[in-house]
Write a structure and sequence with these properties.
By secondary structure, the protein is mostly beta strands. It has one domain. About 10% of the residues lie in helices and about 45% in strands. The protein has 1 helix and 6 strands. The strands form 2 sheets. The protein has a 4-stranded mixed sheet, covered by helices on one side. Strands 1-3 form a two-stranded parallel ribbon. The longest helix has 7 residues. The mean pLDDT is about 85.
């Protein structure tokens, strides 16, 4: 999503499970023109990190027996 155009990404918890490996970790980096449609209701905010001017927030959710972790560039989150 770092291509100088406005991109929109829509994801569900099932999508994250489908596109990640057994660790179920996903990192999404973008810029202030990009957007992400992900309902984080029920997800726990577990970490916020700022490095080199880029701030990310990490969320975790548990789907049955699997823990899913997604780290999002704060530019993507309204």
């Amino acid at each position: 999503m770092d291509n100088e155009s406005a991109d929109t990404l829509e994801l569900s918890l099932d999508d994250v499970l489908d596109i990640t490996d057994g660790d179920n970790d996903l990192i999404i980096i973008g810029d202030d023109e990009d957007s992400l449609d992900l309902d984080t209701t029920g997800w726990d905010e577990t970490d916020s990190t700022s490095e080199n001017g880029q701030t990310t927030t990490t969320y975790e959710d548990q789907d049955s027996d699997e823990i899913v972790t997604i780290t999002l560039d704060d530019d993507l989150v309204d």
